[in-house]
Design brief:
Length: 640
């Protein structure tokens, strides 16, 4: 029985990387492949041209070849007549220039008198419009050094030089071993407690993208002998190994013990979040990288340690991401002593890049998928304040980020539909949304950190939506409040409403487990108003402090609890097959600066919003209606 190893190291990431790079001693192999199949492959040795290109004197134009010296007397006032065969020959682009001719006159500058005679009125110069031997490539010239990744144009050069096959570095073979009793193969039944194995596919494709040859192993159960067998087999057939899960300090995290038993462990734990529980070791001369089971941790660890090994084997430098300076839309807290890798959404607002953090949970795969960039907080920095400038590594092209519309505020399902419709009309554009709640959305507009905010804030005194909040929080700013949707808010309940919830008092009397929205969300404000009207204190609501950041997240929580209850919009309940008890109709409006309202970007959005196709999509969801004939409800002068 292996003894549980509870504590992990805090080794600096770069120290761990350099140590495992030094231990990686696989000797790259060469292979000869057809040039036409060599795109992206890395040259194994310098490549020299066996012939010159062109290998003869070639005409660079359509025209006539002449002896330049015989044309010197040609002039407008002294036209020169030349005879075919004796004093000129016809040539087309690419034709060989026969001796003794040494110049080409473009056909546009030639007057044809008859089939045998032409007239010219200006002299030619020696070698004009002729491509000399070796103009492009000289025989024995080095075309590419070793370690060069071949591009499309490079393949053309090789073929033009007569090289129909090329010696490249054989791709490093990387074994990918997923482990875990909870894992099932894609397509198998997903019982409670079981997880589909998808990390292996992601790892394999990262390795393929970096230039390696992945070999994805079948799932290995959390049994020491089976893990040992898989590692030993892979150590004989691969250049290095990636083993997923079992790298931390859990009861069934055996990997570190097995690597230690079979070989050497260099590192168990690096000073980085997420991604700390990494194992770096060696078995039978083969490097082993143990990465965490949580997807985001695993993806980062793979980049930190597997990518450098692939690049070292191929003899190419590691790629570096483009970086951009951003203004931080929210405060970011870190801890001393470890690097923090924060996934960020980025938008281009009012002439500057603005970034907001996504969830930092290591198991939330979509936070990596949706991220535009990574903010790397150094180990000696405790974080950044809202509004500070910081440098971010980009995960998407800068132009794609620049063309995005930054949407913030309250979550609504139609924003995804709007983004999809926008991308169909303008492929270079999209909406980047951040679900922070209506109040935070208004503050983002106030600070110039978003283009548009969706809000649905009910004033308990006036029973009106949005306008009083805009008056108070955006006073004096040039803003527009644009009517967008009418939608239904209500109780989201398990199918059949087993607790028979009808109003807020029922939550207390029937013992419901409530799922709330975050502070500042319009739904939260509505719920607080309902409690106040009923004379209830938050302490009496079980789950009042349990906050979710979207209507779908509330519905998902209710769906997992037969005593669950939440307040949200009808489409979220419909999406999960849940009961919905209407409470109120609300106005979901868009707030933006006047300059953005007048921009071409918003004019395009408005066209899409009021298109028959988009309206039909929205109404098909249920519980929604696009506001007809929407004009700006309030301009800056009215809300000061």
């Amino acid at each position: 029985m292996y003894k549980r190893k509870i504590y992990l190291e805090d080794k600096p990431r770069f120290e761990a990387r350099d140590e495992i790079l030094a231990a990686f001693e696989s000797t790259p192999e060469k292979e000869l492949i057809p040039t036409v199949d060599a795109l992206g492959r890395v040259t194994a040795e310098p490549i020299f041209a066996p012939v010159s290109t062109p290998h003869y004197h070639a005409s660079a134009m359509d025209g006539v070849a002449v002896v330049a010296e015989s044309t010197y007397t040609a002039h407008e006032q002294n036209p020169l007549h030349l005879k075919l065969g004796e004093q000129f020959v016809h040539v087309d682009t690419g034709n060989a220039i026969p001796s003794p001719f040494n110049a080409v006159i473009m056909i546009e500058h030639v007057q044809v008198l008859d089939e045998e005679t032409i007239e010219i009125i200006e002299p030619a110069t020696p070698w004009q419009h002729i491509r000399p031997i070796g103009e492009d490539i000289v025989q024995e010239e080095m075309l590419f050094p070793q370690g060069h990744a071949l591009r499309p144009a490079d393949l053309g050069v090789l073929i033009a030089s007569g090289l129909l096959s090329v010696s490249v570095v054989k791709k490093p073979v990387v074994a990918v071993i997923p482990t875990g009793n909870e894992l099932v193969e894609p397509g198998q039944e997903m019982a409670p407690g079981k997880i589909v194995e998808f990390n292996g596919t992601v790892f394999a494709n990262f390795i393929k993208e970096w230039g390696g040859e992945p070999r994805l192993h079948r799932i290995v159960k959390d049994e020491p002998e089976k893990i040992k067998e898989a590692l030993l087999e892979a150590s004989e057939t691969s250049d290095f190994i990636v083993i997923n899960a079992g790298s931390s300090a859990g009861r069934k995290d055996y990997t570190v013990h097995i690597i230690q038993e079979l070989g050497t462990v260099y590192t168990h734990g690096v000073a980085a979040r997420p991604g700390k529980p990494v194992i770096l070791g060696k078995i039978n001369g083969t490097v082993v990288i143990g990465v965490p089971g949580y997807p985001v941790s695993a993806y980062l660890a793979l980049e930190w340690f597997a990518r450098p090994l692939v690049c070292k084997y191929l003899g190419v430098p590691e790629p570096e991401r483009q970086k951009v300076t951003v203004k931080l839309g929210r405060r970011i807290v870190s801890s001393m002593g470890a690097e923090d890798f924060v996934r960020m959404n980025i938008g281009y607002v009012n002439g500057q890049f603005v970034a907001n953090p996504l969830t930092r949970a290591a198991g939330v795969t979509m936070s990596y998928v949706r991220a535009d960039g990574l903010l790397v907080v150094p180990p000696d920095v405790i974080g950044y304040e809202q509004g500070e400038l910081a440098e971010v590594e980009l995960l998407r092209p800068l132009e794609e980020i620049r063309n995005a519309i930054m949407f913030t505020g309250s979550h609504d399902l139609t924003i995804d539909l709007l983004s999809s419709a926008l991308k169909r009309v303008r492929t270079e554009m999209k909406i980047v949304s951040s679900h922070v709640g209506s109040m935070a959305g208004i503050m983002a507009i106030r600070k110039g950190e978003a283009h548009v905010a969706g809000i649905h804030l009910l004033d308990p005194e006036t029973k009106q939506y949005n306008i009083s909040y805009v008056r108070r929080l955006l006073a004096g700013q040039e803003v527009v409040l644009y009517p967008f949707l009418k939608r239904k808010q209500g109780w989201i309940l398990p199918a059949g409403n087993p607790l028979e919830i009808r109003d807020v008092r029922d939550l207390v009397e029937r013992g419901a487990n409530f799922v709330n929205r975050q502070k500042g969300a319009g739904t939260r404000i509505l719920f607080d108003m309902l409690m106040e009207e009923a004379g209830l204190e938050p302490e009496r609501i079980a789950g009042y402090d349990r906050e979710m950041f979207s209507h779908l997240a509330v519905a998902a929580e209710v769906n997992s609890d037969s005593c669950g209850a939440g307040l949200g919009i009808y489409p979220a309940a419909k999406a999960m097959g849940l009961e919905f008890v209407p409470v109120s109709d609300e106005e979901y409006d868009l707030v933006m600066t006047r300059s953005f309202y007048e921009s071409e970007q918003f004019k395009l959005l408005a066209e899409i919003i009021h298109s028959p196709a988009f309206k039909a999509q929205v109404e098909n969801i249920g519980g929604y209606q696009v506001v007809e004939n929407a004009e700006p409800k309030r301009l800056a002068e009215e809300v000061k």
